[in-house]
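JOB MANIFEST
job_type = single_chain_structure
chain_count = 1
residues = 96
[input]
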Amino acid sequence: MAAAARSRALYRGAEPRLDPSDACVSELALQEIARGSFTSSELAPFLGGPAGTKRLHSADPATRLRGNGARSPLQHPSPRHRRRFNDDANKKEKRQ
């Protein structure tokens, strides 16, 4: 749920917390969460109650924000990247 909400926010122009490199917005959202770019209070609305909060690790202090936190627009993946991803997904479905 948190990754989906973050993906939508990035797509709508939210400032990324990591260097996006060639990652699409959904990959970037997952990387941001996995690398501890969010505090437990930021993720709390997406957790399933007190048990979920206890399992949450604190933000990694080694995580560096892209451009030292300076704002710059995120570029969306090219249509070619999306097409390649969709083609690969379709190939996997046909094999199964």
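[summary]
Residues 79-95 form the longest helix (17 residues).
DSSP finds five helices and no strands in the chain.
exit_status = 0
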